[in-house]
UniProtKB/TrEMBL annotation:
Native organism taxonomy: Eukaryota, Viridiplantae, Streptophyta, Embryophyta, Tracheophyta
All residue ranges annotated as the PUL domain in the record: 506-792
Native source species: Sesamum radiatum (Black benniseed)
PROSITE patterns in the cross-refs: PFU, PUL, WD_REPEATS_1, WD_REPEATS_2, WD_REPEATS_REGION
PFU domain ranges (all copies): 382-478
Name of a matching Pfam family: WD40
Name assigned to this protein: Phospholipase A-2-activating protein
GO cellular component: cytoplasm; nucleus
WD repeats: 83-129, 168-199, 207-237, 247-278
SUPFAM superfamilies tied to this protein: ARM repeat, WD40 repeat-like
Coiled-coil ranges (or none): none
A GO term, aspect molecular function: ubiquitin binding
Entry's localization field: Cytoplasm
GO biological process: proteasome-mediated ubiquitin-dependent protein catabolic process; ubiquitin recycling
């Protein structure tokens, strides 16, 4: 259908409703009133138009949600299903039209957990789990009944009947997107800046032109292929490889692109807008209160966008479907608040400026200036000492957006200000640089200013070029070296400080493992004794009245402890208290057997003090060695414990102590092989701790992630690093997370980016914006590690 272009306006907003699960009518179908406030963890990432059946969305909260049209008024959408099965961020989605196997259609989802899941929409059940990719799944397409998937692992894989049919390395870098053409060929887009056209496993053509990652692809009806790139452009290509059109207008990364049969194009970007294009010209820019991850057309020409604020929005040209005045005003207010939160005046956030009441306070000196907030602007005033009043100077010109902010040194803005650590106990030096400057000239002036040997000149130049992305810099042929008279650098004696110009980081990379090594042993023993007395009696303490202990109380003679057992527990604690003799003290086999008995037989609600003793035993050289014998056989006591305490409705005390047991295992290298082998199940089991309201649980989980990051960096395990990065990013982006936990999550992210193998993955998952948000934290250490991450992100 053709579209007579008019301005798109808000039609409705789709929000997640995790707080309202008590409204469910059956195990998988929920009914919701429109515009209920959703859980903050719902971060919409991907959109899939499911024919006329509805809209599917994916999210960082590990869910896929299916939305259907409200038949009562044909304007709003309500969430009818929530599909749970992924253990990490969910990204690409694909629609299976109704057929004999899927009478109501199906959905295919790919995640950062490396899995591809196939869902039956009629039942809401997961019917297939496809395992094969080593890293995050980034794209899915249907080729007949075959599923085609692409991944950060650079491979393209074909699946049939739940089994992998073939796989091949398709690009030299991460593959970010895939689309099937009406003619049957496949097109992939990659971080290697190219598109490739595939017929079977044969690459027919490579499209070259983008200058950064190709992030999104779409079919342009009757014309060719659309590509969206991190270079800020959208390009239209003929299948022959000819570039037909380039659309430039976004000011940041373009994540997605889609086309309608009418010829209209929509794109979503990091610059917080969805842009509408007609005949290569931007005819409308729809502002959003956050990054626009994805944008898709409905068949009728309406547009669906997924925003980083967690809301999916539908935009329409149909006047009869436009949202009511109340909803439009609410959105306008939200957008205004968001823009104010990002707006800067005089280097300050507008929202941080004082109001006009600040002018009631007299100045302290003539000419003193003060910037106050007046509406959506910052206005400067100067104190007039003679007349004892504030004179209005004028409006302060807005600074650039956060993503365009330039660093300042000595009151001057530069494109870059680098920290240079020259070693030998010298303080870190600041090296300013503008891209318009000649790097040789800058190096000369800086070395003279800092009184450093000119023999370091070439190293400084190479450092500048490397960290500003100027790989192909060519010196001006008219330039003459004032020291050699030549246009080329003439190296002197070998530098004695080969790492002169290296970035300086405050908190990364993390080295060594963190442990939880303090314990209130007397309190632990009292709690065990209290629980044991409960097992010996018919009475239950108040906090256990809601727990079904009948199965355990029936076997209380087997699970309760006698006096000899209690004495032995006291002896174990005595050994643990005497840390000065850890090198020589030993546990008897009977001691360890008693602990194993308690872990296996005691009621789950009573386990946490026993687990706490185990937490300290694994820090004892002999204790951890003896425990190792209990995890090497089929009856793996630690794995069983994790499964037991993380089952449905886990108790915070059990989560806290069990996470700390696993975290402390990192201290001894004899457990590293076990920790690597069970990494997936451990992180999946404890993943719910990210959203726990218990700060101690959050802190323990973040420490577990940080220890895993250190170990996986050492082992060069890219798949494992990707999983830990996913979990750490989830923690780091939430303002409600405890500050210490958030700090450790950020340290894990920075360390993985700096010394691991997942820097590109982190950049693709919005780590720069996460770091920018953290940099604004009032907690100094969070702001500092965020600055470290920003610096790593800038490195080439």
């Amino acid at each position: 259908m053709d579209i007579d272009f008019k301005e798109y306006q808000l039609r409705c907003q789709l929000r997640g409703h995790e707080d309202d699960l008590n409204t469910k009518k059956d195990p998988f179908i929920f009914s919701y009133d429109f515009l209920l406030v959703g859980a903050s963890s719902f971060k919409a990432r991907g959109i899939c138009i499911c024919g006329n059946a509805g809209i599917a969305t994916s999210s960082r909260d590990r869910t896929v949600r299916f939305w259907t049209l409200d038949e009562s008024q044909k304007r709003d959408y309500t969430m009818s299903k929530m599909l749970l099965g992924h253990t990490s961020f969910v990204g690409p989605l694909s629609w299976i039209p109704p057929n004999e196997e899927f009478p109501q259609g199906g959905i295919i989802s790919g995640g950062m957990d490396t899995l591809i899941l196939v869902w039956n929409l009629a039942t809401g059940e997961k019917v297939q789990m496809l395992k094969g990719h080593k890293l995050q799944v980034t794209g899915i397409a249907l080729d007949g009944s075959d599923i085609i998937s692409v991944s950060i692992d650079c491979t393209l894989r074909r699946w049939r009947g739940g089994q992998q049919l073939e796989a091949w390395e398709a690009h030299n870098a991460a593959i970010q997107a895939i689309v099937k053409l009406p003619s049957g060929e496949l097109v992939t887009g990659s971080s290697d800046m190219t598109l490739k056209l595939w017929k079977g496993k044969s690459c027919i053509h490579t499209f070259v032109g983008h200058t950064d990652t190709v992030r999104g692809l779409a079919v342009m009806p009757n014309l060719g292929i659309l590509s969206a790139s991190h270079d800020g452009s959208i390009r239209l290509w003929a299948i022959s490889g000819e570039l037909l059109m380039e659309m430039v207008g976004h000011t940041s990364i373009v994540y997605s692109v889609d086309a309608h049969a009418s010829g209209i194009i929509v794109s979503g970007s990091e610059d917080c807008s969805a842009k509408i294009w007609k005949d290569g010209v931007c005819v409308q820019s729809i502002e959003h209160p956050g990054c626009v991850w994805d944008a898709k057309f409905l068949e009728n020409g309406d547009i669906v966008t997924a925003c980083s604020d967690g809301v999916v929005r539908v935009w329409t040209l149909d006047h009869d479907k436009i949202a009511d005045a109340v909803e439009l005003d609410l959105f306008a207010s939200l957008l205004s608040q968001y823009k104010i939160s990002r707006k800067r005046v005089g280097g300050l956030k507008l929202e941080d400026l004082p109001g006009l009441d600040a002018l009631k306070t007299p100045g302290t000196s003539d000419g003193q200036t003060k910037v106050v907030r007046e509406g959506d602007n910052g206005v400067a005033y100067a104190w007039n000492m003679r007349e004892q009043k504030w004179d209005k100077i004028g409006e302060v010109v807005d600074g650039p957006d956060d993503n365009m902010k330039r660093p300042v040194l000595d009151g001057i803005q530069y494109d870059y200000v680098f920290d240079v650590d020259i070693g030998d106990g010298e303080p870190v030096r600041k090296l300013p640089y503008n891209r318009s400057e000649n790097p040789y000239d800058v190096a000369d002036q800086w070395l003279l200013k800092e009184n450093l040997p000119l023999s370091f000149r070439q190293q400084i130049v190479e450092f500048i070029l490397q960290n500003t992305g100027q790989k192909d810099f060519t010196p001006d042929p008219l330039f003459r070296d004032p020291y050699t008279g030549s246009s080329a650098y003439i190296p002197g004696a070998p530098s004695k400080l080969p790492d002169v110009a290296k970035p300086s980081y405050k908190h990364i990379p993390k080295k060594g493992m963190l442990v939880f090594d303090s314990a209130q042993f007397d309190g632990i023993l009292r709690k065990i004794s209290e629980f044991n007395n409960t097992l010996l009696s018919d009475a239950l303490p108040d906090f256990l009245l809601c727990v079904d202990l009948n199965p355990f109380l029936k076997e209380k003679k087997c699970s309760s402890l006698n006096e000899g057992d209690m004495s032995r527990l006291s002896a174990i604690v005595k050994i643990l208290k005497d840390t000065s003799h850890y090198h020589s003290s030993r546990f008897s086999d009977v001691d360890v057997a008693l602990m194993m008995k308690l872990l296996k037989t005691w009621p789950v609600p009573m386990l946490f003090p026993v687990i706490d003793v185990m937490r300290m035993i694994v820090l004892h050289p002999d204790g951890v060695a003896k425990l190792l014998q209990y995890v090497k056989n089929e009856d793996d006591i630690v794995s069983e414990l994790i499964k037991k305490v993380t089952a449905s409705s886990p108790l915070p005390a059990n989560l806290l102590t069990s996470i700390r047991v696993v975290t402390n295992l990192f201290k001894n290298s004899c457990f590293h092989e076990w920790l690597l082998a069970h990494r997936g199940e451990i992180l999946d089991a404890f993943s719910s701790c990210c959203s726990s309201s218990n700060k101690n649980v959050q802190m323990s989980y973040a420490t577990l992630l940080l220890n895993y990051a250190v170990l996986l960096i050492e082992k060069k395990d890219e798949e494992g690093q990707s999983q830990v990065l996913s979990a750490a990013l989830e923690m780091a982006e939430e303002d409600t997370i405890d500050s210490d936990a958030r700090f450790r999550a950020l340290v894990a992210i920075g360390s993985l980016m700096l010394e691991g193998l997942v820097r590109r993955v982190a950049l693709d998952f919005d780590v720069v914006n996460i770091a920018k948000a953290a940099k604004a934290s009032k907690d100094a250490k969070i702001a500092e590690v965020a600055a470290d991450i920003e610096l790593v992100a800038k490195q080439n």
